[in-house]
Model the fold of this input.
Amino acid sequence: MNILGIPVDGVTMEEAVHRVGTFVKERQRPHMVVTANSEMIIAAHYDPLLGHILERADLVVPDGVGVVLASRIHGRRFPQRIPGVDLMQQLLKRGQSVGWKFFLMGAEPGVAERAAAAIRVSFPEIQIVGCRDGFFAKDDEEAVLDELRASQADILFLAMGVPRQEKWAAAHLGTAGIPVAMGVGGSFNIWAGLDKRAPKWMQTLGLEWLYRLLRQPTRWKRVGALPQFVMLVLWERLFCRGGTPK
Done:
């Protein structure tokens, strides 16, 4: 479904994991997986480069209640919401059973390593072949790419924030030698125990955004993207067809 110019795939969690599995096998070219929420799609609306990257992504799943609401406004409904942290967990689970190799890159120094340690507790046979933070200078990028290539990872999880993680992957994944990259935002912090997810009942009701706002009131500007997103989707539904005014 096209939402504000961004094609979002209406897949289930199982289908998304299966699709990533096909990407891992297709090693001839890199593949990008995006977990799109309303804030990201709003950013892409005003950032042509980000919009272009999302349009060309191999898999864009609906992460966020706003994107699911947008599907309803357009007269259809995505099968389910697929939060990035949940998709990451399911990929780790599948990866343990089939022998995928993972590289964790991003967050502040030490966080990726703490996340990897927690992941190994949950998935004792997981193959994590590299960890590093996301704070490196442009002059260090070639060394980072050498590290990625040497790891022979199958999936690269990037926790560098939107839009940096998507732009970095789009610019460098082709030379990193890794078939799949996925931006995971703050998921490393959750695995590392630095942040907590909302209670299950709030996740079910799509209220994780409210939980994060209550825990971090400084996020109010980011949450403010949701009503703007809904208004733009309503405008698109009522007055546009295929991005062209009626």
Observations:
- Strands lie at 2-3, 6-7, 31-36, 59-62, 101-106, 127-132, 155-159, 180-183, 240-241, 244-245.
